[in-house]
Amino acid sequence: MKPHVETLRWVGDRPGYVEMIDQTRLPEERVLIAVKTVDEMRDAIRRLAVRGAPAIGVAAGYGVLLGVQELDELDAANVVGVTQEVAATLAKARPTAVNLFWALDRMVKRAQREMRSGAPGERIVSALFEEARAIHAEDRATCRAIGEHGVTLLKPGMTVLTHCNAGALATGGMGTALAPVYVARERGIEVKVFVDETRPLLQGARLTAWELVQAGVDVTLITDNMAASAMAAGKIDIVLIGSDRIARNGDVCNKIGSYGVALLAHAHGIPFYALAPLSTFDAESASGADIPIEERAPEEVTQGFGRRTAPPQVKVWNPAFDVTPARLVTGIVTEVGILSHPTTAIVEAALERGRIAGQHART
Questions:
Q1: Is 43 in the active site?
Q2: Measured between alpha carbons, how far apart are the two ends of the chain, in Å?
Q3: Measuring CA to CA, which of 21, 230, 263, 270 is 20 to 30 A from 128?
Q4: Among 200, 170, 225, 171, which Cα is nearest to 296's?
Q5: DSSP state of 77
Q6: For residue 117, what are the contacts with CB-CB under 8 A and spacing of at least 6?
Q7: What is the rounded CA–CA span in Å between residue 35 and residue 89?
Q8: Cis bond before residue 325 (omega within 30° of 0)
Q9: Residues 245-249, mean pLDDT to the nearest whole number
Q10: What's the pLDDT score for residue 276?
């Protein structure tokens, strides 16, 4: 079995930098870029060189390191102040992926906690390095746990439909929606994957199809408007998607088009699962109506990949995400288990289990 790809890593010690696959260049070429400044990291997140909620969280943690690793003034208050400034800068990169804000908040709180304990600036910087590396290591472990839980949903010969990219390219590990596929292959369980093209930026075609080909998985690419026909023809057994933010009631926000896939799956009696770490849950959003939806440039629709496909005068509505109501979600696969038919009570109980597990891991 071929290994899954690695989307980003920290290179060197201190000072170091982030090396990542520039996902805007796939599938034509696999280009590794070196991200060495906060502005470069903000740009990488904004322009989707790195994307996927968990991967953005890992990148954000490392982005803070880029801002503090070579400070001349190592006064504790200055280190904490710079940490907060860097976090504020990176937070402006994208509005929807909650892992971005979760990771930045975690980094800021670590710096503040160290300062309150009386640690000097040098120790605070070292602690931030520990925290960023922990975020990455935890994401790898979380992806593995999601895969272990999710593989129980798969049987030999099944065909999975996925939308957008929630594989290794979207995380610091083996992925979320694709993690069960990789674990299945490790166990000798052969499954096939149908990949929605995922318009307008074609993350399914450019990224998921590429990633699965690299890993030697049996993959078939379809355009988004072929999903209904594929389901009607009996070609799809289960739908697995990722998520950029999940509300407290179990509403799932994911790449635009996911809601449509959920409606189709419901109409055809096909189970529909979202796979995401607990860090993707937003306890402040009571429902999907509270989730901010990023709207992107009209050129992504009218001039996709540099070629004009619509008249210059036409108006464009280009939301990057949509929300699938919890009533259409068969279950949410997390690192603490599968939340079947999610409700507010089920989600809150899972978040509490995750909180307790996190406390135990730190003691």
A1: no
A2: 37
A3: 21
A4: 200
A5: H
A6: none
A7: 15
A8: no
A9: 96
A10: 95
User: Amino acid identity of 46?
Assistant: R
Give the tens place of pLDDT for each residue, 335-353. 999 999 999 999 999 999 9
What is the Cα–Cα distance from 324 to 304, expressed in whole angstroms? 26
Residue 217 CA: distances (Å) to CA of 188, 234, 241, 270, 321 = 12, 20, 17, 22, 27
Q: CA 180, 63, 98: angle at the middle one, nearest 5?
A: 50
What is the average per-residue pLDDT within 128-136?
A: 97
Tokens for 88, please give them: 């504020």
Cα 208 from Cα 22, distance rounded (Å): 14
What fold is seen in the domain 152-362? Rossmann fold (3.40.50)
**Residue 98: pLDDT band with limits 50, 70, 90:** confident
Question: 298 is written with which tokens?
Answer: 């009209």
User: Global pTM?
Assistant: 0.90
Residues facing residue 160 across a β-bridge? 193, 238
CB–CB of 163/204 below 8 Å?
Answer: yes
Mean pLDDT of 48-62: 94
Q: Where are the domain boundaries for CATH 1.20.120.420 in the chain?
A: 8-144
CATH fold group of domain 8-144 = Four Helix Bundle (Hemerythrin (Met), subunit A) (1.20.120)
The pLDDT of residue 360 is 47
Phi, psi of 348 (to 5 degrees): -65, -40
The pLDDT assigned to 94 comes to 87
d(CA 56, CA 98): 9
Give start-end residues of each CATH 3.40.50.10470 domain in the chain. Answer: 152-362
Distance CA 352, CA 302 (A): 45
The share of the chain scoring above pLDDT 90, in percent, equals 90
Q: Looking at the chain, list the stretches that DSSP marks H as alpha helix, in order from N- to C-terminal side.
A: 38-46, 53-68, 76-91, 98-116, 121-150, 179-186, 203, 209-215, 227-232, 258-267, 299-302, 344-362
Closest CA to 59 of 38, 73, 80, 30: 38
Catalytic residue among 139, 237, 244, 251: 244
Tokens for 191? 């499954």
